[in-house]
Amino acid sequence: MELVILIGLQASGKSTxxxxxxxxxxVHISKDLMRNNKNRxxxxxxxxxEALAAGQSVVVDNTNPTVAERADLIQQGQQYGAEIIGYYxxxxxxxxxxxxxxxxxxxxxxxxxxxxxxKKLVKPTYAEGFDRLFHVAIAAGNTFRVQAWQEDxxxx
Length: 156
What we know:
Elements: E1 2-7, H1 14-21, E2 27-29, H2 40-53, E3 58-61, H3 67-79, E4 83-89, H4 93-101, H5 111-120, E5 132-139, E6 143-148, H6 151-154
Parallel strand pairs: 1-3, 1-4, 2-3, 4-5
Antiparallel strand pairs: 5-6
């Protein structure tokens, strides 16, 4: 059983990555799907616990920019014996702003949201409790290049 935590700016490819890699095998939990819920954090936690208690692998598809936000998820995953896997998405602000401009309707977020997220975005580390970490970049043809995390290279 896995708890996959996606980390990165809005419009960095996280949801598309979920669809291409995990849609058939993992429960998708995203605050974006809880627009009418007044307490998205509590609802996310509830859905996560329900899935893990049922032995289901889960992907948490949010920006998850801070150590504190990830800590709650990691703790819950560890309580259920899940393997904790993080995917950090290369988050170049200008490229994310461009991709966001191409979105329509509710998928398009106010630009201020991207600026707020990048201010608090902290790269993950194994010290947080991850069992495995990966670096993800959008490659040619809207595919993904996934590489094993190397803290000495990616920490900076």
